[in-house]
Amino acid sequence: MQLKHQLTIPYERSKLAVEAGIFLLVGIVTALVNNLFLQWGQNDLSVSLALKFAFEWHTEMFLLGAGVLFVVYVWFASLFGNKWVGAGSLTLLSVSLGIATCQKMKFRGEPLYPVDLKMATEISFLVEMMGVPLAVFLGIVLFASFTGIGILLYRQTKKETPASVKRWRRAGRAAGFLLSTLGLIYIGQFNEPGNRLKAAYDPHAYWIPYSQDMNYYNNGFVGGFLYNLQTKPMEKPSAYSKERMEDLTEKYRSLANSLNEEREGALDEVNVVFIMNESFSDPMRLKGFHGNKDPISYFRSLREESLSGMTLAQGYGGGTGNSEFEALTGLSLEPFAPTISSPYTQIADKMHQLPSVVRRLKRSGHHATAIHPYNTTMYKRQDVYRSLGFDDFLYADTMRYTGTVGSNLYISDREAYREALAVMEETEEKDFIHLVTMQNHMPYGTKYPHTSFQSRGSGNKEEADGYLQDLAYSDQALQFLIAELERVDEHVLVVFWGDHLPSFYGENVTQQNSELALHQTPLVIYSNKLNLQGSVGTISPVFLMNQVTEAVGAKKTPFDALLSALSDRLPAFEKGMYVEAGEPTPKKFRSELSPKAAQLLEEYHLLQYDLTTGEQYAKELGFFD
Question: Fewer CB near the terminus (10 Å): N or C of the chain?
Fold first, then answer.
């Protein structure tokens, strides 16, 4: 008997080793095949694109994605205690995600995001999106899969296995479950600073915050999905507490009451139109750049007759969604953690919690319409606009006016303005219209075969000449819009600004101009009923709505009062650039600010943490009422 026992131990160990090898082999093959399936679904069922991504273009990222799926396989297999059930569960999950992203790309032009998984319980919505035949087919597949899993697990319980083997299997299962659970938790922190998986992706990845369909295309389904996982917007300030937020609310409610004593205007009496014009800037003010004539002569005349100034763009050559986020929420990117490069895409799930110009004006009876003459994939706008409170979102496929100019593929500014005018004419309520144009989007060199503009010093003459022509068409379209608004009986107030400068300028221009100059875009605030004049200087987009309440004389909320106090001391700021009132040169660090400016920015920082990451005490206390 002792000899038999001694012979059994090596046999059992070798059997366990073989089982472990098969377990790993099944997991590796399953992870690779399922990752390929996800690529197939992501690339509109193109086998060629899926294979090229995996084995020619981005093999490193494909293997990293397969590694993530392998961890999921280990978790399922350890949970159920069966490698085949683990492989089947991963396959079922991958098939579901692959079909879902394919359908979403087909109907909404954007990939599947982690936040979309919350819709799994909305059966009627899913059936509507997929169609009845596909929904029934998937239902049958799910039923058959769960039945098969049940049978496998039942058979497993009927097998006779030596007690020592059972103990080793239980130990291996427990270890696998623990390690895979920890692995999934770590993977879920993909966007946290120092994450090793993100660091492994970074040398090979091409992250594109503003366009998630391209983000998924470039980095694979798994990489794109991980990039869109939630991340903590801000670290907790040491001074944050409920008591501190109560003190701030009382302080700025008192200031608002004081400011409101002589304010008798009302937002419900005015239509408000935000126009963020793509790449609209004033190239003639840049040192080293020369043009043969002024492309925005009408804008200059309008600026002299209106309230005007400059906005501090968050980016150079890009960052449209960030300027838009600041303008619509009154929240700045400056206090956010460095990992938050695009709030629209990275904290889209929090948008419904944030203050917005949209909800502010809807409380005043406005109908809120967003217009973007392009598709819906840029910056997750469809989801974001819904969360911010817009009633309608008109884009390229739903707009009535979609004409272009020359060889420009983008809908023109004039057509976008016609769309906005039509909306105002049709709605009975007062309107809030937020229009983000596309006409002036790069590239510029091939849009207009014939142009009378000639430039020098840009570093790219063809692009610069085309850009000047784009600006000229924008200028003409703005003149058309203002002429139409002059004939409107209702009061209309327009806030027009550029989101950022174009990116074609070479070293000749970028080295001769300050960083501030490369981030300043023109701003004009026009009213067809009020005599608005003067200069607001350079301001951040977070203060644009405050300019509206100032122009109309509307009463301020405590949040407005905080923004007013902050803008008086620090009218424009972003990370690494702080334009303090009365100071000729921007400061690079918060530590260089005057005590009062630093205090106001700290209070603003506390409020933003409370809204985006904290307990939202301020909302409960009526900070935005």
Answer: N
